[in-house]
Every structure is written in C-alpha cells, then in structure tokens.
Amino acid sequence: MKKLFLAIFIILSFVQTTLAAQISYDKSDFLSVSSVIYDAAYDIRYYSDNNFTGGRIRGYNAPVAYMTKKSLKALSFAAEILRKQGYRLLIWDTYRPQKAVDNFVEWINSSENIGDKSFYPNLKKSDLLEGNYIMSKSGHSRGSTIDLTIIKKDGSFVDMGGTFDLFSEVSHPDYKKLTKQQRRNRMILKNAMEQAGFNGIDSEWWHFTLKNEPYPDTYFNFDIE
Description:
Layout: H1 2-21, E1 23-24, E2 30-32, E3 41-42, E4 66-68, H2 69-83, E5 87-93, H3 98-109, H4 127-130, E6 145-152, H5 180-195, E7 198-200, E8 207-210, E9 219-220
Parallel strand pairs: 1-9, 3-5
Antiparallel strand pairs: 2-4, 5-6, 6-8, 7-8
C-alpha cells in the first residue's frame, strides 16, 4: 500500500511540475503589432467594459496588442495582401494572459454579475463554459492567435454579418443566413489569413491561429502594458 501511495505521489508531482512548466512570464519573443504593421486599427475589447463580462479583464493594463515575432511576421504578410484589396486590419484581441482566461472562468462561476447579455442572448452564463465557448486554457495565451476583422482603408465599416464575441451560430464562418456580400467579406479575411499561414476555426469567423506556432505547449502570463 505504501508503494502505491508513493507511486501516486510521484505521478501527481510530475503532473504538477509539467503543468507549472507550461506557464511562462517571458515576453522576450513578443512584439506589439503596431511596431510592425503601421496601419492597423485597434479596439482592444478586454481593456474596456465592451465585452461579455461588462468590465475590464485582469492583465489588460493597456490597449496594446502583442504577438510572437513569428506570428506577427505572418500577420504582416496578411496585412499586405489585404492592403492591395483596399482593406486594413481592425484588431480586437491577440496575446491574452492566462490570468485573463482565469478571470473569464471566475466570472462564469460567479452568480453576482451577468455581464453583457447581448453577447450571449440565447445562453445561460454557465453554458459558456459547459459548451466550450470559453475554455480554461486559450490559444490566445500561447501568443500566436488573433481575433480581428477588416475595415476599409478610410476606416469605414465592412459588414461581416455579426459582431465579435457573439456566442451564437451567427458567428460560425459558414452561417447559412449571411447575405452574399457578408459571405464574400468573411472570405476576403479568411483567404488572406490562410495565405499568410493561419488557420481559422468553425465557431468564430474572426479567430485565427498560426500554423506551426512557436509555443504550442506554453501559456504566457505577463501583463499587457
């Protein structure tokens, strides 16, 4: 029995050490998007109260977008593709500290604050975690994921048929009730990001992660400032 307890203790210690090793505060391989892409626009939602929680998120101490150097180089290529078509990037979120993701989970598990229901009009708050809309670990924390859209060069709106962080089937890239123009606009963004080496997901038209991201198993936790 003692040997069994010892084996379990060793396994748990190994798991805890492994999980701890996945968290990093090293920001030496990160750059701000603005240092590379001169014409991007920003609406960093988690620095503001214009998000599903209704308040600023932990770790967002400035409205700045950071990414790994490798992913930012690829994003710069996408920006150039879109410039030639008359568009520029509008960025909502890039690197997200692990403490921000923890903040999301705490908010979901709290009964005190319903946040902004317009972002999840047909769901309960608990559905956001149980339905995997929000995860306890996010690709954003690995530094090579971005939430973005396109705007025209003069800054005017491009209709994507749905807003950022809307937890609904409307946000699915292939949502069937889009107009032809809305579908075309989504494809312009998708094609440029894929040409630059990013993959999208099937639940959010605005979300892209770099293929062969440099830190697939590391979740960063330094503040954005």
